[in-house]
């Protein structure tokens, strides 16, 4: 028997263990963060001779907020001698390490906040450039939360080290809207006794203005200005007042920065106040300065005409660029610059192409009837030129000349027809829009036939819409233009039809008779968009209302729906009504019972072995025939592809099977597979329609080696396959769905395709595939797949990772013996054979 005392002691210890607080596990201890280093430890690390310890201390300081100011001197000292990051990133890893260290040190200095300002201010005069650079960057960071740092930065614009003002200017520019807050401070510094401070303040203010206003000299700013109104976020004083203050200090601006400052002031008519201070600079010894003065004057437009005498003197400038810009200034002043015509006439006859062209552009505004002008402008219309500027400028000049430019109409029409890009994109489409507009301004109603030609032939909707808009402008005075617009209602583009409908609606009562006549058109789109146009005319004329009531009996549901909406006073959108009708048809496709060719005749039923046999026998002529449009479609469904299926040398006439795809311009694709049963006799195995967003690509026939299993020793054989690729669109993605069948004796049997993303086993944790695989590529004995690796949670298409997975399939024919029927059956499938992960080439 055990000792009772031992038993009691054991029980007591057990109870104590149960009641004791749980101990911290080793895993939990590992998960606890170590305490942050103290100030003394950070300082010690920054003073270490070991680079790794210094980097660790800098990272610790960068993570400490707020950082005691005692660390600041040691951070600044650690910046000493570090490399600055150049624009070219092709450098050694050692230099990159220095950049990273400098970034941590500046972040840490910013963490020190306002208490560090005196020390950082003193550092701006340090003999080491890296220290000065880091001090500027840190003060900019601090200034975002502590405005008292801004005066220090503004005072430093007069720093004896040129790199300090330059870096301050650049950093202020990079701060965007934040920089507007210091405009009053900079403006005050324009009166500083130090001319260097005054000049640098003027430069910085001009940079802030250029970043917030419309720049007439920087094209990239022009693009931004189209997206937002200039001065939208401006909280400073009147731009004109500020421009005047800057202009008064141009004499204090560093000569190297004067051209850029003038460029920054290129703010259009609002810069007119600067003219008295700009004109003396036309006598400056620097050609770039003189050029940008004239650039400013040109950007002011007619507001700069008080400078005509000065611009005329600049026509004799030794610098060609200055002379050309002086002509541009005279050109924008129009007839007011008539005294310059004799000099411009001399330039027009110059053997230098640029000089002659610029003179022609100026004369087109000043004296459009001038002899010798049109030959130069016409020559500038050359569509083969790689430089679009002369062509665009000539079109604009001809546009402004109006009827004076009529002799140039044939050249302009030729340009419209030939000024296109050969690739899939069409970067010249905006040029053609301008050309179409110019043609109408020059030729008036005589341009109508050419406008109709553009609408029916140009491949870009925006160009076609420009022609429609031009017709609308002519419609109030030309019945021919109204008739042409009604004809456009039958165009193959919704956007173009909408533009024509809108133009007719704006013409109001004048367009009603032609629109009423269009309601009797045999073309559904012409009737539908005529209803849309009539619905836009307010108040609705009595005869238009009567015509719409008759349209309630139209054979098309689309027209009837629109007419009812127009009579109720609702906005009519023909595109939306047609799209809704198509959606109804798309939903019908998913229900086999509603397909006009009978239930159970679709692709899924055939793959499942449940397809209903179509007893009808078709001829080849019936198979390939067009399918007429119904009452809600304009265009017939035409044969798109016809692919015979059978081993070579089978021809289209004796192939065992046939795959066809029909397509309609305003409908869906229809795929059918046929089995030949006799001489010119075919039985339809299945038929499948797409939804309106998707379409069938051309069916593919290929042969491949097949691994046969299940009948003893595995062996290889060769088989013929049919792929029916469906191009599918969903959300913001698209891809190909492959539907593969094998010619097995006298039957087509489905082949199951394995999921390559799973079967390849190449995806790692945290990775997925964007919008499915990149696609399969099936050729004879070459069954390839490929997909791009995508980080989980990535929010943009550009975030795709640096890897692709490439691989191949193999076909397996699994044989199974059916003991009951005493026969063999086969299951066909494609499985992943090879796969490899490859790095995507960098652009």
Task: List strands and helices in order, with pairings.
Elements: H1 4-19, H2 26-31, H3 39-46, H4 51-62, H5 72-79, H6 93-111, H7 117-123, H8 129-143, H9 149-155, H10 163-174, H11 177-180, H12 183-189, H13 195-212, H14 219-227, H15 239-248, H16 258-264, H17 275-278, H18 287-300, H19 308-313, H20 320-332, H21 341-348, H22 353-366, H23 373-379, H24 388-401, H25 409-418, H26 429-443, H27 448-457, H28 461-475, H29 479-488, H30 494-507, H31 512-518, H32 524-536, H33 542-551, H34 557-567, H35 574-589, H36 603-607, E1 617-618, H37 620-624, E2 637-645, E3 657-664, E4 670-678, E5 681-689, E6 695-696, E7 700-709, E8 715-723, E9 726-730, E10 733-737, E11 740-744, E12 747-753, H38 756-759, E13 767-769, E14 775-779, E15 782-791, E16 803-818, E17 823-839
Parallel strand pairs: 7-16, 12-17
Antiparallel strand pairs: 1-5, 2-3, 3-4, 4-5, 6-9, 7-8, 8-11, 9-10, 11-12, 13-15, 14-15, 15-16, 16-17
Structure description:
The structure is a single chain. With 843 residues, this protein is α+β, with helices and mostly antiparallel strands. The protein is 46% helix and 16% strand. The protein has 38 helices and 17 strands. A hairpin with a 5-residue loop joins strand 3 (657-664) and strand 4 (670-678). The longest helix has 19 residues, at 93-111. Mean pLDDT is 84; it is low at 1-31, 218-229, 586-598 and 795-799.
Task: Characterize the biggest β-sheet.
Answer: 6 strands, mixed, barrel
Helical/strand content category: alpha+beta
Q: With helices defined by DSSP (H or I, 4 residues minimum), what is the helix count?
A: 38
Catalogue the unreliable spans. Answer: 1-31, 218-229, 586-598, 795-799
The coarse overall form would be: flat
Per DSSP E runs of 2 or more residues, the count of β-strands stands at 17
Classify the helix fraction into a percent range: 40-55%
Mean pLDDT: 84
Strand percentage lies at 15-25%
Terminus-to-terminus distance: 85 Å
Spatial strand arrangement across the major sheet: 7-8-11-12-17-16
Radius of gyration: 39 Å
């Amino acid at each position: 028997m055990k000792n009772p005392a031992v038993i009691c002691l054991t029980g007591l210890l057990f109870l104590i263990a149960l009641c004791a607080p749980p101990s911290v596990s080793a895993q939990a201890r590992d998960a606890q963060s170590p305490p942050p280093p103290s100030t003394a430890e950070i300082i010690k690390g920054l003073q270490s001779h070991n680079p790794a310890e210094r980097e660790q201390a800098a990272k610790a300081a960068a993570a400490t907020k707020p950082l005691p100011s005692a660390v600041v001197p040691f951070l600044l000292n650690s910046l000493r001698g570090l490399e600055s990051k150049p624009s070219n990133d092709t450098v050694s890893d050692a230099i990159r390490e220095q950049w990273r260290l400098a970034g941590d040190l500046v972040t840490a200095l910013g963490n020190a906040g306002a208490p560090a300002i005196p020390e950082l201010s003193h550092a701006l005069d340090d003999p080491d450039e890296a220290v000065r650079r880091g001090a500027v960057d840190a003060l900019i960071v601090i200034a975002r939360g502590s405005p008292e740092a801004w005066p220090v930065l503004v005072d430093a614009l007069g720093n004896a080290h040129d790199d300090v003002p330059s870096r301050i200017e650049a950093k202020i520019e990079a701060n965007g809207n934040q920089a507007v807050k210091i405009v009053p401070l900079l403006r005050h510094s324009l009166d500083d006794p130090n001319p260097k401070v005054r000049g640098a303040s003027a430069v910085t203010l001009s940079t802030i203005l250029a970043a917030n206003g419309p720049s007439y000299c920087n094209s990239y700013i022009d693009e931004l200005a189209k997206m937002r109104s200039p001065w939208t976020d401006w909280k400073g004083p009147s731009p004109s007042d500020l421009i005047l203050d800057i202009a008064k200090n141009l004499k204090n601006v560093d000569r190297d920065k004067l051209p850029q400052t003038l460029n920054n002031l290129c703010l259009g008519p609002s810069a007119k106040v600067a003219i008295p201070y700009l004109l003396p600079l036309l006598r400056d010894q620097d050609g770039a300065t003189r050029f940008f003065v004239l650039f400013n004057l040109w950007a002011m437009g007619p507001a700069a005409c008080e400078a005509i005498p000065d611009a005329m003197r600049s026509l004799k400038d030794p610098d060609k660029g200055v002379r050309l810009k002086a002509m541009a200034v005279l050109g924008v002043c129009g007839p007011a610059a008539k005294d310059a015509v004799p000099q411009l006439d001399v330039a027009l006859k110059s053997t230098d192409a640029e000089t002659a062209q610029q003179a022609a552009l100026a004369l087109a505004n000043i004296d459009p009837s001038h002899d010798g002008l049109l030959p130069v402008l016409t020559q500038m219309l050359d569509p083969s030129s790689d430089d679009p500027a002369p062509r665009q400028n000539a079109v604009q000049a001809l546009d402004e000349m109006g009827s004076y430019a009529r002799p140039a109409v044939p050249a302009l029409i030729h340009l419209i027809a030939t000024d296109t890009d050969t690739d899939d994109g069409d970067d010249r489409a905006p040029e053609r829009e301008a050309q179409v507009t110019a043609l109408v301004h020059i030729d008036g109603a005589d341009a109508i036939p050419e406008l109709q030609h553009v609408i029916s032939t140009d491949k870009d909707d925006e160009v076609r819409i420009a022609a429609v808009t031009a017709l609308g402008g002519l419609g109030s005075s030309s019945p021919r233009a109204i008739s042409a617009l009604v004809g456009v209602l039958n165009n193959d583009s919704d956007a173009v039809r909408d533009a024509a409908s809108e133009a007719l609606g704006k013409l109001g009562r004048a367009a009603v008779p032609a629109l009423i006549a269009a309601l009797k058109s045999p073309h559904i789109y012409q009737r539908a968009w005529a209803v849309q146009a009539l619905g836009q005319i307010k108040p609705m004329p009595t005869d238009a209302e009567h015509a719409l009531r008759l349209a309630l009996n139209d054979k098309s549901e689309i027209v009837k729906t629109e007419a009812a909406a127009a009579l109720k006073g609702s906005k009519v959108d023909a595109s939306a009504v047609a799209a809704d009708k198509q959606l109804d048809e798309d939903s019908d496709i998913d229900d086999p019972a509603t397909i006009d060719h009978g239930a159970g005749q679709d692709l899924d039923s055939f793959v499942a072995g449940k397809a209903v046999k179509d007893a009808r026998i078709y001829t080849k002529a019936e198979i390939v025939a067009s399918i007429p449009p119904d009452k809600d479609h304009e265009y017939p469904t035409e044969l798109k592809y016809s692919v015979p299926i059978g081993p070579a040398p089978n021809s289209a006439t004796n192939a065992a099977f046939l795959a066809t795809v029909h397509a309609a311009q305003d409908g869906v694709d229809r795929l059918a597979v046929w089995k030949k049963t006799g001489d010119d006799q075919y039985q339809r195995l299945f038929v499948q329609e797409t939804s309106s967003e998707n379409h069938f690509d051309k069916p593919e026939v290929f042969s491949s080696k097949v691994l046969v299993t299940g009948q003893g020793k595995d062996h290889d054989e060769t088989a013929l396959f049919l792929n029916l690729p469906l191009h599918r669109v969903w959300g913001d993605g698209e891809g190909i769905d492959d539907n593969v069948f094998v010619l097995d004796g006298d039957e087509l049997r489905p082949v199951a395709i394995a999921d390559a993303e799973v079967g390849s086993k190449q995806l790692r944790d945290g990775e997925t595939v964007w919008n499915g695989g990149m696609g399969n590529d099936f050729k004879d004995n070459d069954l390839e797949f490929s997909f791009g690796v995508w980080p989980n949670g990535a929010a943009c298409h550009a975030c795709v990772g640096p890897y692709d997975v490439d691989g191949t399939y193999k076909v397996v024919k699994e044989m199974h013996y059916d003991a009951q029927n005493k026969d063999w059956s086969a299951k066909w499938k494609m499985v992943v054979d090879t796969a490899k992960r490859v790095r995507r080439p960098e652009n």
